[in-house]
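Query protein
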Amino acid sequence: MKKLSVYLFILCISPFFAKAAAPLEAVQIYTQDELLDLIKKNSHLTRVKLDNCQLVQDIEARAMKMKIPAYQFLFGDMLAYAVCVDRDVEQGMYYMRLAAEQGLPEALEQMGRYYHLAKFVQKDLDQAVIYLREAASLGNLNAQMRLVSLFNQGVGSPRDYEDAYRWLFNSVTADKKTHKKITSLLSQLAEKMPPSVIKRAKRAL
């Protein structure tokens, strides 16, 4: 009877140990398009954690040696938010800047947002406008909305109103709340612009 109890116990715990001992399945490094899609959805850091931090060396190599903007952005975020690596905000910002300097819209938008909100850096609205304007011109909707919002608050130059209005007016979104917010932002900015300039800004890109 005692031997039978031991046998049944072993049968019960065997699946647990088998599962625990099973090696992690190798994770393939993300393609450029896949990573860009993750960044646009703001799920890139979550994906790295879900992949059990297996790709840290690959990500670091693509950021540092290959200088790929999307990977510079990812590695910078990992450093700033201590995802699978030790936290190093200064180094993280360095890689985010490199990605922005190479024209990655999401990096430009994030840098502009950080300067606007004083996150990791000192608040600098002039720098915020510079980064956001570049990201907005490349079609980044979040940058377009934040840029117009800043203009509505009196930040920036009126010379940039027409471009900002045009970019946001021609943006596309299926989200009703976002569409409503865009309408409100454009309405406020229109109050600062001559009718002729508004008419010109509404022309298709």
Q: What stands out?
A: The first helix runs from residue 2 to 21. The two ends are 83 Å apart (CA to CA). The chain has a mean pLDDT of 90. Residues 190 and 198 are 7 Å apart (CA to CA).
